[in-house]
Amino acid sequence: MAEHHHKEQKPISYEKCNKPIISSSSSCSFTALIVLLIFLSYFLYSFSFMSFLNPYSPSKITNSFLVPVIRLGSGQKPVEETELKHIVFGIAASSDLWRRRKEYVKIWWKPNGEMKGAVWLDKPVKGNASSPSSALPEIKISSDTSSFKYRYRNGHRSAIRITRIVSETVRMLNGTESERNVRWLVMGDDDTVFFSENLVRVLRKYDHKQFYYIGAPSESHLQNLHQFSYGMAYGGGGFAISYPLAKALEKVQDRCIERYPDLYGSDDRVHACMTEIGVPLTREVGFHQFDVYGSLLGLLSVHPQAPIVSIHHLDVVTPIFPKTDRVKAVKRLMIAAKLDSASLVQQSICYDTTRQWTVSVSWGYTVHITRTYMPARMMEVPTRTFNDWHKRHDFTNIAFNTRPITYTACQRPRVFYMSHAINDSSSDTTISVHLRHNEWNPKCDWGIADPSSINRIIVYKKPNPDRWNKAPRRDCCRVMPTTMKGTMVVNVTACANDEIVAYSDK
Ligand SMILES: *[C@@H]1O[C@H](CO)[C@@H](O)[C@H](O)[C@H]1NC(C)=O
Ligand SMILES: *[C@@H]1O[C@H](CO)[C@@H](O)[C@H](O)[C@H]1NC(C)=O
Ligand SMILES: *[C@@H]1O[C@H](CO)[C@@H](O)[C@H](O)[C@H]1NC(C)=O
Ligand SMILES: *[C@@H]1O[C@H](CO)[C@@H](O)[C@H](O)[C@H]1NC(C)=O
User: Fold this and answer.
1) Mind telling me which Pfam families this protein's record contains (predicted)?
2) Is 281 a member of any domain?
3) What is the CA(89)–ligand 1 centre distance, in A?
4) Number of domains in the chain
5) How high is the pLDDT of residue 65?
6) How far is the C-alpha of 26 from the C-alpha of 29, rounded, in Å?
7) Distance from the CA of 247 to the center of ligand 2, in angstroms?
8) Which of the ligands is closest to the CA of residue 124?
9) Is 250 touching ligand 2 by the criterion CB < 6 Å?
10) Residues 284, 400 share a domain
11) Domain that holds residue 444
């Protein structure tokens, strides 16, 4: 941490000297001296806080307890880090779709008490066997909501039933043995798939004893602007409510709902009540509502540098891997998630300088090869493989930067989807194999080798479960020499301190 500050502080003092605000060179060096002194004392101060100089430093306490803790500042007792067992899920589902949708829940649900929570249905379904050992959560039937007003034209009044899952879950837990352990309620839909280890990584950053409402808005600017809000956690992407806040919401939720009969959904009713309590949305970009149509290829190949927590609308988009069904496709992504969840769909960019190609890896998902050297600032922008929620193909309606799939036929990327991945236990390295997706192959007269000469890409990467405990940084990749025909070998690692993505030093 101290080292990190050091690096950021130094250039600032130099830069100031170059600016005309400081008149003479002597005052400049004086300023530099002052800055150095301030910095040094700050350095010593923070160092003393963090290490052996201070016998009561939080790190000392950590060591003596030999359990992971959250550091809550001096004077407070260390707290066990948040784990899966501290989370209770509330899954919104309906009896008519449950038969099919439960396949999505099975993909991520961990049975035998490893995960806690329930699926909430409007009415009982046949063949609902949900014993503790079954692959699915317990099924609960929501209580009657027919007395609540619902006035949104052409909307679904099930929104009221679903929004009340928060308070029904609090009442379900009230007074039970497991309530003591509950730190977070996490809401999701039956077509939401959670990456639970990453969910835990995100929630760990926050003090569960305080009021937190964590999630993300929609990809669709118009949805956020008109129908809903940038301050709302979209229910399909899933959201987390700290347990004290969930209890506070439970107290007021029914009366609150009555004040908003004109709203459309369940998540906007939660949002409305949160605004009454005064708790803002804490935005975490790993929650994905995915209000888009078409292919998620562009979005999942360039994920923000944050752990991926959820994906949603899997029935709306095409299967995330081609030539397979939706459920099998997500299961394949889960193979990678099991090997190195923290790095799932994290990007790395490198150049094959013998062939003038740009290589972009989305770990556990795809590799793209593009002719010519494309700068990192372009490669980290998602391509428009998807359509916007209003089916206008209007990318001013997307609430972040996107770029066309290609600008010229020659630069159309070749896409290699992961086919399988294993853990090589002798070297503790993951090996994922990617196969080329055959699609439209444009003619190109650039005299640059055709990436279609590659059929298979082998990606090596050591798991990096601690990466999000550090400042975010993209991984680096290297194209390795190989004699295997039609094969490319890529090694993905954490970048060295001075490593950059550039095709020339000029
Ligand atoms: C589960 O199924 C049984 C019989 O098939 C039914 O009696 C029961 O009400 C159902 N429970 C739920 C929660 O759907
Ligand atoms: C929890 O249970 C206690 C004791 O039965 C009851 O007094 C209280 O109202 C309950 N609270 C909630 C939120 O259900
Ligand atoms: C990979 O294998 C090594 C050695 O057996 C083991 O320590 C590690 O936990 C494994 N990793 C995963 C993700 O299975
Ligand atoms: C990948 O690079 C790392 C760091 O340079 C190295 O330790 C590792 O052996 C490489 N892996 C392979 C499979 O070449």
Assistant:
1) DUF604
2) yes
3) 21
4) 3
5) 42
6) 5
7) 11
8) 1
9) yes
10) no
11) 335-493
List pLDDT tens digits, range 402-442: 999 999 999 999 999 999 999 999 999 999 999 999 877 78
Residue of 172, 174, 249, 251 to test ligand 2 pocket, by largest number of atoms within 8 Å of CB: 174
From 5, 37, 71, the end of a domain falls on: 71
Classify residue 122 by burial, with Cβ atoms within 10 Å: 0-12, 13-18, 19+.
middle
Give residue 482's identity as a one-letter amino acid code: T
Q: Which ligand is nearest to the CA of 425?
A: 3
Last residue of a domain, one of 274, 289, 304: 289
pLDDT at position 130 is 59
Whether 468 and 345 have beta carbons less than 8 Å apart is answered as no
Per-residue confidence band for 71, with pLDDT thresholds at 50, 70 and 90: low
DSSP 406: -
Q: What is the CATH number of the domain that holds 437?
A: 2.70.130.10
CA dihedral defined by 174, 175, 181, 186, rounded to 10 degrees?
A: -10
Q: Which atom of ligand 4 is nearest to the CA of 491?
A: 1
Has residue 434 been placed in a domain?
yes
CB-ligand 1 contact for 423 (6 Å cutoff): no
pLDDT digits (tens, 9 = 90+) for 3-24: 333 333 323 333 333 333 333 3
Does residue 255 lie within any of the structural domains? yes
Query: Is the CB–ligand 3 distance for residue 463 below 6 Å?
Result: yes
In the chain, pLDDT over 90 holds for what percent of residues? 77
Q: Could you give the 3-state DSSP secondary structure of residue 218? A: coil
Q: Atom 9, ligand 1: which residue's CA is nearest?
A: 124
Of all atoms in ligand 2, which is nearest to the CA of residue 171? 14
